Amino acid sequence: MVTRAAALDARVLVLNRSYLPIQVTSARRAFSLLYQGIARAVNEEYRTFDFESWADLSTAIHHDTVGMVGRSIRVPRVILLQLYDRVPKRHVRFSRFNIYARDRSTCQYCGVRFLRTELNLDHVLPRSQGGQSSWENIVCSCLLCNRKKGGRTPEQAGMRLLRAPLRPDWTPFVLDAVSPDRFAEWTPFISTVDASYWNTELIG
Asked: Per-domain residue ranges for the chain?
């Protein structure tokens, strides 16, 4: 049984209005875009739906649903932005989402994968010791490891990083998009894009 929280954290592929994939977001954000009329849900037959028509669809064949008053609504796997037609640019935006994506939502100290709501962003070299907020100094950390490390370096706390944090060479969401466990509904949109497209960076 999928919990409401897990369903709202499910990954959703975002397409621009030319049906090119530009991002992976959460179901929570996807529902917000649908409700505001900024995006439409795309089903397995490539038909698009606004929020109300999507909510009216049967949930019987769909595993992930979110309960609403008096009914449940399917979690979309793909959404289509109505007005956005730009494509990713050549700079990976330094953002919380992209750091989670780079680190695969995995604590870089204990190696356990968590929901994003259960992770912090940790300064490897603490700000109190001159550490900067940069790709090379920020990692995902679970709450327990974050408390254990405190305002110390990993060495000072007797902890070890899984890997040195680096600026990504390509858009982190590509890791989700091309991974073996991606949703089948993504495949038609992923397979139509060549490798050079995937090696570009996300719009900020």
From this structure: 4-87+172-194, 89-169
What pLDDT score does 102 carry? 87
Contact (CB, 8 A) for 84 and 19: no
The pLDDT tens digits for 48-91 are: 999 999 988 866 555 677 766 567 788 999 999 998 777 655 56
Beta-bridge partners for 141: 120
Which one is the CATH code of 89-169: 3.40.50.150, 1.10.30.50, 2.60.120.10, 3.30.450.40?
1.10.30.50
Q: Tokens at residue 38, please?
A: 């900024």
Q: How many CB atoms lie within 10 A of CB 108?
A: 25
Instruction: Give the chain's length.
Output: 204
With CA atoms as reference, report the closest residue to 18 among 87, 89, 78, 77.
Answer: 87
Pick from 81, 89, 44, 39: which is nearest to 186 by CA? 44
Helix (H) or strand (E) holding 39: strand 39-42
DSSP code of residue 4: H
State if pTM tops 0.85.
no
